[in-house]
Amino acid sequence: MTHLKIVHGDATQEEIAALVVALASRAVPAAKAVRKPEIWRNPAHRMRKPLPVGQGAWRSSALPR
Fold it and tell me: How close are the terminal C-alpha atoms of the chain, in Å?
């Protein structure tokens, strides 16, 4: 880590701490926003959903979801 050196003036411990915090916050790169994938491009979007299985499956296969 780079050391700071005060070459002019008289700074208090609080002022030095505030300066270090300000410089450290500027050094951190901003996080990129996560993009939501576009569903209309996904080929899996066009695939058929699984068929219902079990008792009453034939009845529920014709009902809208």
Answer: 59
Please check the confidence at residue 1 and state whether its pLDDT lies above 60: no
- pLDDT tens digits for range 22-58: 888 877 677 788 888 777 777 877 777 777 788 878 7
Please answer whether residues 60 and 52 qualify as being in contact, where contact means their C-beta atoms are separated by less than 8 angstroms.
Answer: yes
Can you say how many angstroms the Cα of residue 51 is from the centroid of all Cα atoms in its chain? Answer: 35
Domain ranges of the chain: 1-28
Q: Mark residue 42 as left, alpha or beta (left: phi above 0; alpha: psi -120 to 50; beta: remaining).
A: beta
Whole-structure pTM value: 0.37
